[in-house]
Structures are given as C-alpha cells and as structure tokens.
Amino acid sequence: MTLSNGLRIPKGARIVLPTGAINMDREFFEDPQTFDGFRYYRIRTANEEARNTNQMVTVGKKDLTWGYGKHACPGRYIAEVAMKLLVIEFLMRYDIRLPENVKERPKNIEFEGLVCCLHP
Questions:
Q1: What are the beta bridge partners of residue 63?
Q2: Fewer Cβ neighbours under 10 Å: the N or C end of the chain?
C-alpha cells in the first residue's frame, strides 16, 4: 500500500497508533497529566462548535478512540449506552472508596493496543 504522501507500507506490516499519546498532548489539552473529571464538560461549553465536536461518540483527529473517517466504528453509539449503563450499575450497587489507610488515589494505569495488519 502506498499512502498519498508516497510512504509505502509493505504487505503484512503492523501499524501501531499511539492513540493514548494524543490525550497527553499539551497542544490539545491543558494540563493533560492531571485528572480532571470536568475537562470535556468545560471544552463543550466553550462554544457551539466545541459542543458538537467533543461528544463521547464524536470522531476526529484529536481522539482516535472510535477510529476516523470511513473507518469510524459504527457500533460506538451502542457502546456509549452500554458504558453509561455499566457506570450507573456500579454507582447504584457499590460503595466505591479507597481503603482507610490509603490517602491518595492510585497512579493511573494506561493500557491500549490498537494494531492494524495490512492483508492482501
């Protein structure tokens, strides 16, 4: 496969996208290392364009979670509802807190693996 910029990708090559790195890019997010549960809320309330381009199921170059362009995940809308229902169940059924002797939240655990293989 030859990309529009002339880069040739051989058959069977593995392409790995550092999608998590985008979320830590200061060009896109202010203070990305700090947890901020209202980050996207504030982004969405900035203006109408931001509201339309920063929803959970929105696809774009700043967030490749759901893919992009014609390869965007068609099931992302169902997945969004399933995730919200799961969070609701956890909040309603469990009392979630740190153990009594722990005073700080645990370090973030990041895992991802978006690998594409080019086949004939």
A1: 60
A2: C
- Report the C-alpha gap between 44 and 52 in whole angstroms: 8
For residue 120, the model assigns a pLDDT of 47
Q: Are 14 and 119 in contact (CB under 8 A)?
A: no
Mean pLDDT, the chain, rounded, equals 85
For 15, phi then psi, to 5°, come to -115, 125
pLDDT at 29: 84
Region 94-111 average pLDDT: 84
Q: Is the pTM of this model over 0.85?
A: no
In our burial notation (b when 16+ CB lie closer than 10 A, e otherwise), range 10-42 reads eeeeeeeeeeeebbeeeeebeebeeeeeebeee
CA angle 28, 29, 32 (to 5 degrees): 135
